From TrEMBL:
Location of the protein in the cell: Cell membrane
Domain Phosphatidic acid phosphatase type 2/haloperoxidase, first and last residues per copy: 92-200
The entry's keywords: Cell membrane, Hydrolase, Membrane, Signal, Transmembrane, Transmembrane helix
UniProt keyword annotation of Membrane present: yes
Topology class, membrane: Multi-pass membrane protein
Protein name: Phosphatase PAP2 family protein
Signal sequence, renumbered to the chain: 1-32
Organism encoding this protein: Mucilaginibacter aquariorum
Pfam families: PAP2
CDD domains in alphabetical order: PAP2_like_2 (cd03392)
Gene3D superfamilies the UniProt entry points to: Phosphatidic acid phosphatase type 2/haloperoxidase
InterPro entries: PAP2/HPO, PAP2/HPO_sf
């Protein structure tokens, strides 16, 4: 068991190091190609916006906080009411996974300091101007962490499918709204998923 945990920790921190070093470890040409891809995707999404779609994307983006807090809270309340220790333990697992993902995301943002798309490229016009820095996406990190942890705790298709559909929709909304690049979202999703996998021993 100790060997397995050590293996997970080594793999996890290798992923974290790779995410942190990605913006500066690649060659200038690779960075330029990645940036061009990111900008192209953002400009294409910007051109396809419509008022109804924008309203939906704003709504999806806002559900992130409610999902991250509401899912473990609902399990905790359900576990207390039904006197179900497994449900209470799973609530702790999901909450811990999301909290750790959030903390690591803040740390990586501080280290990388990538500028928001609309700051990096004046041709990118956001729906609203988000603060802080861009890499990785906090919404993607925490939503995928919640989705992965919930799916680990209750590995049924009717839990897994909606969970990842929600996390994917939240992450896509961040690009659509013009506040995160595709690579920001991808890194956030990897970070959140990896954290949930690392903390699997907390689930019942």
């Amino acid at each position: 068991m100790k060997f397995v945990c050590n293996k997970y920790f080594l793999l996890f921190f290798t992923v974290i190091q790779s995410i942190t070093m990605l913006p500066c470890a690649t060659s200038s040409l690779a960075q330029s190609q990645i940036q061009q891809f990111d900008d192209r995707v953002m400009l294409n999404l910007q051109q396809s916006r419509t008022p109804p779609q924008t309203d939906v994307m704003l709504f999806l983006s806002r559900t992130n906080m409610y999902g991250d807090i509401g899912v473990p809270a609902a399990l905790l309340v359900g576990g207390i009411i039904s006197n179900d220790s497994q449900m209470r333990q799973n609530s702790l697992y999901i909450a811990s996974s999301t909290a750790v993902s959030y903390g690591l995301m803040v740390l990586i943002k501080h280290l990388v300091k990538r500028r928001r798309p609309f700051v990096q490229n004046i041709n990118i016009v956001p729906v609203y101007r988000a603060g802080s820095t861009s890499f990785p996406s906090g919404h993607a990190a925490t939503s995928f962490s919640t989705a992965m942890a919930l799916s680990n705790a209750y590995p049924k298709w009717y839990v897994i499918a909606p969970s990842f559909l929600w996390a994917g929709s939240v992450s896509y909304s961040r690009m659509y709204l013009g506040v995160h690049y595709p690579t920001d979202v991808t890194a956030g999703a990897i970070l959140g998923t990896g954290t949930a996998l690392l903390l699997q021993p907390l689930k019942r």
